[in-house]
Structures are given as C-alpha cells and as structure tokens.
Amino acid sequence: MKTYGLIGYRLGYSFSKGFFTEKFQNEKLTEHEYVNFELDSIDEFPEIFKKNDHIAGLNCTIPYKQQIIPYLDEIDEEAAKVGAINTVKIIRTGEKIKLKGFNTDIYGFENSLKPMLNEKHKKALILGTGGASKAIKYILDKLGLEYLSASIEDQLYDGEIRYEQIDKALLQEHLVVINATPLGTFPKVDSCANIPYQHLTADHVLFDLVYNPEETLFMKKGKEKGAAVKNGLEMLHGQAIKAWEIWNS
C-alpha cells in the first residue's frame, strides 16, 4: 500500500483527500490511499513516519506551511523564495528517507490567474496577509504586476494598507483584486471582505481563493459590476496535479 496524506490542524473536509481518493478510484489504483493527518502541533510530524512506513507523498496545509520547513532536508528553489511548503516529496534510499519541500500553490495560482489578465492589468490588490498570500505575491512579481496588500493586523509592513484606505481611486488603479482570506467560505457564505464594491468595473478581475461555495459573495458583487471572476477550485486542481507529478518523478 502506498499512503499519501495531508498534514494540518483541524481538517474536516479536505479538498486533497476528496481529489486523490476519487483519482485513485477512477484510475483503479487500489494499492493507493490518501489519509488526513491531523496534528495538534508540528512537533508530532516525525511520528507520522514511525507509524506509517509506506508514506509516498504528503501535502501540507495551514497552520504548518511554514512550521514544517525545519523538518525538511531540502527545499525547492521556488518554495524557498515563497517561504511556504504545501508538498513534501519522500525520497527513499534503503532504510533512509529524505524529505524535500515544494510549493505547488505557485503552479496552481499562476495557471489559473494568467488567462484572465490582459495589458490593462498592471496592479493588483491582495485582500489578506496570511500564508496564502505568499505564493500570490511570488506569482504577481513573476508576471510583472505591482501589488498592495490589505491587512487587519496591528502592524503594517511595506506594501500593506488598511481596508479603510481602499477607495474609488485605488480600485481604478488596481484592476486585479485577489481574496486571500477565508471570508465567504461555507457555512459563512454571507460574508466578504469590506471593500467598496460599487467602484468595481468590467475591467476588473476578481480572484477568490475560496472554492466552497462555488460562487462567493465576493464574486457575486464583482459579477454585478461586470468584472471577470474565478474561484480557487481550478488553482487547487492545478496544485494537486503538480504534487502528484512531483511525488512520482
């Protein structure tokens, strides 16, 4: 049996478990399984390998995308630049195992956002400053888009603003708006980031990392103004497929 799994805190329903379980069934990979490893602390991470000697690959989600780094033997160059890990490749040499970290969110986000952009889209506004925003910033840099991040934290860092500073002029300049917060996620579907949606236009692109529900309130408000919208499901599919490639390369 080959065991793949997801490391997280309180996982409940996880996209990864559903995606890979369905993949294994469809491709008749009967000797494959996908397991959720709920850890109360990242300190418990090494125990996974003591209890499971046939782990073939791991995904990693919040709050451990950064905390897992000291436990890895090697980190992919792009993942090191982002500073967050969501995929761990297990390299076996006899009895020894080597753990290498990757960030496939980079691949998933780039390939989902890029088709929505045109020459008008030169600046982006990122809603949220948590771990999810790291891969977003990396890709925006790669694509040559300037960006600001809206923060609710007490301390503002370079390139960060308060939500109260988002006005018509700022939205006219920042035609790409990315929700990197969990606001609007099921079951709290009636919530969304507090921005002046009335100033959105048909030139705007709204990308929501949330994927459940399929259409968030953030997206609905964008569509009402003619903006192009997309949720995070395609990004998740992309990052999962890339993780599978890494595990089996």
Automatic annotation (TrEMBL):
GO terms for molecular function: NADP binding; shikimate 3-dehydrogenase (NADP+) activity. Transmembrane segments: none annotated. InterPro entries: Aminoacid_DH-like_N_sf (IPR046346), NAD(P)-bd_dom_sf (IPR036291), Shikimate_DH-bd_N (IPR013708), Shikimate_DH_fam (IPR022893). This is Shikimate dehydrogenase. SUPFAM superfamilies: Aminoacid dehydrogenase-like, N-terminal domain, NAD(P)-binding Rossmann-fold domains. Pfam families: Shikimate_dh_N. It comes from Mangrovibacterium marinum. Keywords: Amino-acid biosynthesis, Aromatic amino acid biosynthesis, Oxidoreductase. Pathway: Metabolic intermediate biosynthesis; chorismate biosynthesis; chorismate from D-erythrose 4-phosphate and phosphoenolpyruvate: step 4/7. The keyword Oxidoreductase applies. Residues 6-88 form the Shikimate dehydrogenase substrate binding N-terminal domain. One of its GO terms (biological process) is aromatic amino acid family biosynthetic process. GO terms for cellular component: cytosol. The keyword Oxidoreductase applies. It comes from the Bacteria. Gene3D superfamilies: Leucine Dehydrogenase, chain A, domain 1, NAD(P)-binding Rossmann-like Domain.
